[in-house]
Backbone:
């Protein structure tokens, strides 16, 4: 049963009654709402004021123009009945008439519990009662009679359809067992038996599940009924992200499509829970959240600079990477403050939404909201970083020496810059460049001496000879040009491999930017195969690459 209100007005009415109405008043409104549900026509529309008056006996001033379809109103009022009766804490014995649980009603009407849940969507009104010290869904005898009298054909079909003879049940169980022994999956066997018997897949599934529960030692699908491991769930999620359909995954893992979708949602929720959403708190965020106009301004485009920024002159002979930095204009103080406020406010919103995320029952709409906010967070952070990359270069120039690589310093400084973006508090009134300069120089002061100490460990007695040796190193432009040529050569010969071979080579040798080389075991875990299988594929791929290098006349390093 759909547990979300379709219209916020009915949800707001529910909140008011749950919080403020006395118990007697709650029960009166529950009875009024249940009576109204039986009168609603799905094809008609009803004003909110009419619905509210029928339930509470007063006409509200709010939502004067709001109209709901009969179907929408019926759905939300059923939830209203269940939620308000839940808040009333009524013991089943004090209901004043007979109360049946889902299982008891299914047995009395000779249908499955799933059929009862379907009938709830069709107008069978349920309430919540205190039974045996805990809250449970229950049905008043009058509610049952009202539904049965208004849905005689539906109840007759459901009752008739669920009446499996013992002979037919035994045949279904025996046939399912033979198909399972031949390697059939539960979902495929259920569909096949449904076509053969003319029964619904739900009836077949319920029959087989009931048999397995009653006879665990003779279960037809003992392994398929068991829970999947965390590693298997992760593989299913990864394969679905690569484009594998839920139907294909269901067949491969002997599961239903519904269970596959449930696993995908669960793993997606876990991924969202791991997102880095730490933000610099600010009191204005709560105020922005309550003001739509302020929120639109904060999340809107970056303000234009008061004076147009002059395009700097590019020094001649710059490597492509350094030349590209001059294409991004520097930020003004107002633009800088806007971007940091936007990034931290987006994190604030995303983290608040994530608090509502239940990993056991994740809502796709909520997850989609968080993911969209995270995309905006990353885009805003990248905008700040790109505008400050020149700062890293200027600091690295002052620290580079004979023993340091300029581009290694720039790479190290870029990491410090990105960490500084995460930690900077724009509300203190400082310029980000001041804070970032301090963070980058502090990092250089720590890492450069460490690098010298590591090199000193391997210095030999011939140091004096090295000191008088001519420095024959190439300049930075030559080094970068050679590196770009090597990368181009690698990309050209990688195209000779298939997709899986490429992925293994890239991960094993760390060919993707920002990724360290992985061991055979680590690659195997990520791709879901054994370490030995990764080694075999790697050996075959390296042979192909050597042949491709020879064909392309690429000189391999010794």
Residues:
């Amino acid at each position: 049963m759909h547990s979300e209100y379709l219209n916020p007005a009915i949800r707001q009415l529910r909140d008011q009654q749950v919080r403020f109405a006395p118990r007697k008043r709650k029960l009166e409104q529950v009875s009024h709402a249940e009576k109204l549900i039986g009168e609603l026509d799905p094809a008609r529309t009803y004003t909110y004021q009419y619905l509210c008056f029928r339930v509470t006996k007063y006409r509200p001033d709010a939502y004067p123009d709001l109209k709901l379809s009969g179907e929408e109103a019926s759905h939300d009022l059923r939830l209203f009945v269940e939620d308000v009766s839940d808040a009333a804490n009524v013991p089943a014995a004090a209901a004043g008439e007979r109360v049946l649980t889902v299982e008891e009603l299914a047995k009395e009407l000779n249908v499955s519990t799933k059929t009862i849940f379907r009938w709830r969507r069709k107008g069978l009104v349920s309430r919540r009662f205190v039974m045996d010290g805990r809250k449970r869904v229950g049905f008043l005898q009058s509610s049952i009679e009202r539904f049965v009298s208004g849905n005689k054909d539906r109840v007759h079909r459901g009752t008739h359809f669920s009446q499996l003879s013992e002979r037919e049940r035994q045949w279904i169980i025996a046939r399912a067992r033979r198909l399972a022994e031949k390697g059939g999956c539960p979902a495929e066997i259920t569909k096949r038996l449904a076509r053969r018997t003319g029964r619904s897949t739900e009836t077949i599934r319920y029959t087989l599940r009931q048999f397995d529960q009653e006879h665990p030692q003779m279960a037809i699908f003992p392994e398929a009924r068991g829970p999947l491991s965390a590693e298997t769930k992760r593989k299913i999620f990864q394969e679905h992200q690569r484009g594998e359909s839920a139907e294909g995954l269901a067949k491969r893992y002997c599961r239903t499509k519904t269970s596959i979708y449930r696993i995908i949602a669960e793993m997606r929720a876990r991924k969202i829970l791991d997102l880095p959403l730490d933000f610099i708190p600010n009191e204005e965020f709560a105020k922005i959240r309550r003001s739509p106009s302020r929120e639109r301004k904060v999340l809107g485009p970056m303000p234009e600079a008061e004076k147009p920024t002059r395009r700097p002159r590019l020094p001649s002979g710059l490597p492509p990477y350094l030349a590209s930095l001059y294409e991004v204009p520097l930020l003004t103080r107002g633009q800088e403050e806007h971007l940091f406020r936007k990034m931290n406010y987006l994190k604030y919103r995303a983290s608040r939404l994530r608090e509502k995320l239940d990993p056991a029952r994740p809502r796709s709409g909520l997850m989609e909201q968080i993911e969209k906010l995270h995309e905006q967070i990353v885009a805003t952070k990248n905008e700040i970083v790109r505008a400050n990359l020149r700062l890293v270069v200027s600091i690295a120039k002052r620290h580079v020496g004979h023993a340091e690589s300029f581009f290694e310093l720039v790479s190290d400084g870029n990491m410090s810059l990105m960490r500084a973006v995460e930690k900077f508090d724009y509300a203190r009134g400082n310029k980000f460049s001041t804070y970032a300069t301090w963070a980058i120089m502090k990092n250089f002061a720590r890492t450069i001496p460490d690098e010298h100490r590591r090199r000193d460990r391997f210095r030999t007695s011939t140091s004096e000879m090295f000191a008088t040796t001519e420095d024959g190193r190439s300049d930075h432009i030559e080094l970068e040009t050679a590196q770009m040529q090597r990368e181009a050569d690698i990309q050209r010969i990688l195209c000779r491999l298939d997709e899986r071979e490429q992925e293994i080579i890239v991960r094993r040798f760390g060919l993707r930017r920002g990724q360290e080389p992985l061991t055979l075991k680590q690659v195997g875990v990520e791709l879901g195969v054994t370490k030995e299988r990764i080694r075999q594929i790697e050996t075959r791929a390296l042979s192909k690459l050597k042949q491709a290098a020879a064909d392309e006349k690429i000189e391999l390093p010794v």
